[in-house]
Amino acid sequence: MIAKRFTHTCVAVAAAAACAMAGAAAPLAKTQGPGYYRTMLGDFEVTALNDGTVELPVEKILHQPAPKTQKALEKSFLKTPLETSVNGYLVNTGSKLILIDTGAAGLFGPTLGKLAANLKAAGYAPEQVDEIYITHLHPDHVGGLAQEGKAVFPNAVVRADKHDTDFWLSKVNMEKAPADAKGFFQGAMASLSPYSEAGKLQPFDGDTQLAPGVKAVSSYGHTPGHTSYVIESKDQKLVLIGDLMHVQSVQFDDPSVTIAFDSDSKAALAQRKAAFADAAKQGYMIGAAHLQFPGLGHLRAQGKGYAFVPVNYTVPK
């Protein structure tokens, strides 16, 4: 009888211990995934690639009163500093693999630099990329081109508007720039140097058909050679607008709000208004580097501004 009670007691103690262990606090994972989103555009496969996020003090860099910015953020259940996505886009046309923007690598802080890893997670290797189209030469768009002085995409030709390459790759312009802007020039030079030295940097001038179904369209203003890319297949259209906008919760409602990063705010504003109006009228999909990942969706006119409708989650067939 004593032995039986002892056995029951041991079982009860063991069960309690197991329950205690099962209920022990687990550490927070603090990771996110996946870092890519894939969709079809006609016969083309488009893969959005996440380079990470960066916190931006948008109440300081947007050209409107800080309280107004904060109110707009609160309306979208956001706050400042705003955790902002950095996106690139991989387009597989069937005959070419084209990467549009490469993320920041180490040029824009430690929370970025994930684009190459996410490209691999999406089933591609950097060596497979045939061409790279750059919207503009700011560090969060070109930093991923190189690592330790070597090309990350060794077989790729790099294309960008010559107005941007002429400006950002000029040592004369860098020397004349304010101290806090010199890093933009240095980052562009370091990122593009391996391709330039190999004869694989091929600037274009203005609106240019770069590949079947892929066209560069000038949208100068944010930088001297800022470029949007129009992708079309089987009557379906996607326009990647780069940095024509930065803060979704502010600039769709009020496209007139400009940002300190613009080289020419007036020109950037005109380009943004034209891009938004055309996208809403024509109904095609847009993508942008700093829309919340995956940064793809449609615009619908709403009052004096626009409503952004993110893409529906789908599994490509």
Q: What is the CA-based Rg, rounded?
A: 24 Å
User: What is the CATH topology?
Assistant: Metallo-beta-lactamase, Chain A
Total domain count: 1
How many E-type strands?
Answer: 15
Unreliably modeled segments: 1-11
The end-to-end span amounts to 67 Å
- The CATH class designation is Alpha Beta
Average the pLDDT over all residues and give the rounded result.
93
Helical amount: 25-40%
Q: Please, how many helices?
A: 10
Following the backbone from N to C, one meets helices and strands in this order, namely HEEHHEEHEHEEEHHHEEEEHHEEE
Secondary structure category: alpha+beta
Task: Please give a handful of descriptors for the protein shown.
disordered N terminus; Metallo-beta-lactamase, Chain A; alpha+beta; single chain; 10 helices; seven-stranded mixed beta sheet; globular; 15 strands; 317 residues; six-stranded mixed beta sheet
Overview of the structural elements:
- This protein is α+β, with helices and mostly antiparallel strands and 317 residues long.
- It has one domain: Ribonuclease Z/Hydroxyacylglutathione hydrolase-like (Metallo-beta-lactamase, Chain A), CATH 3.60.15.
- It contains 10 helices and 15 strands.
- It has helices at residues 2-22, 58-61, 66-75, 115-121, 139-142, 162-168, 171-176, 182-197, 248-251, 265-282; strands spanning 36-41, 44-56, 82-92, 97-100, 131-133, 146-147, 150-151, 157-159, 208-211, 214-218, 227-233, 236-240, 285-287, 296-302, 305-310.
- It has a 7-stranded mixed beta sheet with strand order 9-10-11-12-13-14-15. Strands 1-2-3-4-5-8 form a 6-stranded mixed beta sheet, covered by helices on one side. Strands 6-7 form a two-stranded antiparallel ribbon.
- A hairpin with a 2-residue loop joins strand 9 (208-211) and strand 10 (214-218).
- The longest helix has 21 residues, at 2-22.
- The protein is globular.
- Residues 1-11 have low confidence and may be disordered.
